[in-house]
Amino acid sequence: MDADELPPHITLGRYLQMLEIARAKHALGPGKDHMHAGRSLRDPLLLRLIWNTGGGVSDIADVRAGNFDFGIMLLNLRVKKTREVDPMPLEEGTLLDVGNFSNRPYGELICEINWWQIRHVVWEYGRDIRIDVHPHMFRHGHVIHLLNQNVPIPIISTRPGH
């Protein structure tokens, strides 16, 4: 890859389109059951966590209720590859989604989902906006977004895998 080429990534605009569709697609309405209502909360949360943390799908699937510190707006993300816990700052919207979706006891998974199901969730909403996307493209997209916002490289390098 040339130094001027960017890796395959999803743009902020595309991510936001996917997030909007995830909220609307499974919203409870006429003819919808509560399973769909659960997805309207779960899927946006998954998309937000992947985008905002840069975490891998296995790391996101392993997020537990006790990993969030709402007081200082952090997710203590356990990174399986390094076996380290990386504190990831989260914006208020993601924390609100966590609070709305999960009332799990401390230590339990926030959602019962595996890495393959997360990949499918990302693929599904990518298909809805007519792009071929996989979760790793979120990692690259968020880093590129941070660089475009002039976030210092030492700050960006604290993201998992960067």
Q: Short summary of the structure?
A:
With 162 residues, the chain is mainly α. It has 7 helices and 3 strands. It has a 3-stranded antiparallel β-sheet.
Features:
49% helix, 3-stranded antiparallel β-sheet, globular, single chain, 162 residues, 7 helices, mainly alpha, hpI Integrase, Chain A
In words, what does this structure look like?
- The longest helix is centred in the first third of the chain and has 20 residues, at 34-53.
- The protein is mainly alpha-helical and 162 residues long.
- The chain has a single domain (12-156), classed as Orthogonal Bundle (hpI Integrase, Chain A).
- It has helices at residues 12-25, 34-53, 57-61, 92-101, 115-128, 136-148, 153-156; strands at 68-69, 74-79, 84-89.
- It is built from seven helices and three strands.
- Helix 1 (12-25) runs antiparallel to helix 2.
- The chain has a three-stranded antiparallel sheet.
